[in-house]
Design brief:
CATH architecture: 3-Layer(aba) Sandwich
Low-confidence stretches: none
Structural class: alpha/beta
Order of helices and strands: EEEHEHEHEHHHHHEHEHH
Number of domains: 1
Distance between the termini: 21 Å
Radius of gyration: 17 Å
Mean pLDDT: 96
Largest sheet: 8 strands, mixed
Helix content: 25-40%
């Protein structure tokens, strides 16, 4: 099937949601801080053509840039709930959240919504912030997407373990700059440091966690110590040779995990 775009009403406006109404539990994708619905292009290319999928630009980013704040995690989880209700009509689904999107996905999963069959967390921000997430770290992170040059530095020196293909890298740079100033600052200054361990303990569905072997943003050891204790049913798989941007660096590996 071909993706179609549907408009879902959310607080303060609407989201343009790309839907492939195929088979199986629908995969509902939530991108990272700096990403977009297009972050998942490579992953979808490795999935069976008939697999049901849902993806969109989160509030404040890309096509959703003009949606008003607040842009905090609870509002992102509220938007996600509206998308699920508006696009899936009660059918079963699996949330697939990357980094910031992984933390928002944890919040929705903790609400135990009807139809949720599983949770796949891709290099997720853990429910308990790591000690490295200091005020100094967050202030520096808040400037990572200030310019094309700062984005290029983040991609080359922090977010990936190997160079991205030129077209993928160009899209990542564009996406990282396609946010309003308030939305761009919300995650590094507040969201990344928010402790959601109380909510994470309420997650009941099976949880798969994918970590990049060389991820310096959310290293495997951080996920072992700051996620697994709070989501005891979660299993962790380390993907070799990659960094934080698994959907861009290892889309086939992510798709393989989703085939389960």
């Amino acid at each position: 099937m071909t993706e179609t775009t549907t408009r879902v009403e959310v607080e303060g406006g609407s989201l343009d949601v790309r839907v492939n109404g195929g088979d199986g539990p629908a995969l509902v994708f939530l991108h990272y801080w700096g990403g977009s619905a297009g972050t998942w292009d490579g992953v979808l290319a490795h999935l069976p053509a008939g697999r049901a999928t849902v993806r969109y630009d989160q509030r404040g980013w890309g096509r959703s840039r003009d949606l008003p704040g607040p842009y905090g995690l609870q509002r992102l989880a509220d938007d996600l709930a509206r998308v699920v209700d508006g696009c899936l009509a009660g059918r079963p689904y699996v949330l697939v959240g990357h980094s910031m999107g992984g933390k928002a996905s944890q919040l929705l999963a903790a609400r135990r919504p009807a139809g949720l069959a599983g949770l796949v967390l891709v290099a997720p921000a853990p429910p308990r912030p790591a000690p490295a997430v200091t005020e100094e770290y967050r202030q520096g992170l808040s400037h990572a997407y200030d310019s094309p040059e700062s984005v290029a530095h983040a991609l080359g020196q922090v977010l990936t373990a190997a160079p991205l293909p030129d077209d993928v890298r160009a899209t990542a740079v564009r996406d990282s700059l396609a946010a309003g100033a308030e939305a761009r600052r919300e995650w590094p200054l507040r969201g990344i440091a928010e402790d959601i361990t109380a909510a994470a303990r309420d997650i009941e569905v099976p949880v798969t966690v994918l970590a990049g072997e060389h991820d310096v943003v959310e290293p495997p050891e951080v996920l072992r110590s700051h996620l697994l204790p709070y989501v005891p049913q979660a299993t962790l798989t380390v993907v070799p040779g990659v960094g934080h941007l698994l959907p861009l660096e290892a889309p086939a590996a992510v798709a393989e995990a989703l085939r389960d």
